[in-house]
Specification:
Length: about 110
């Protein structure tokens, strides 16, 4: 079966996985990542939330929103620019708060 799904198409494409991926005879994906960040829950992530409910030993399919991927890319860039191998929790919290505030205000 498919373990990881990474979607990089625009959310307007309304991409979802074939129903056969979610068939009882197949193990569902463990992780579904969607790089689109508006809306936060794309059709693919919605499908993973609904169809993947209760699957996997961890209590469902892990879903990663595009906005979270964008923030993690920013952390990686910040590490490169500053030469710091690790960011403090305060820096991580400040960056996340700032990005999420901008995201909410720019809707």
């Amino acid at each position: 079966g498919v373990e990881i799904v990474l979607c990089t198409v625009p959310a307007t494409a309304q991409f979802v996985l074939p129903t056969s991926i979610w068939a009882a005879s197949n193990p569902p994906p463990r992780v579904v990542l969607d790089a689109a960040y508006r809306p936060r829950e794309t059709r693919l992530l919605e499908q993973a939330r609904i169809q993947g409910k209760g699957s996997s030993e961890a209590g469902g399919v892990a879903r990663v929103e595009g906005i979270d991927m964008l923030i993690m890319q920013g952390f990686g860039a910040l590490r490169l620019w500053t030469g710091q191998s690790d960011l403090t929790p305060a820096v991580r919290a400040a960056v996340t708060r700032s990005v999420m505030q901008y995201y909410a205000e720019s809707a």
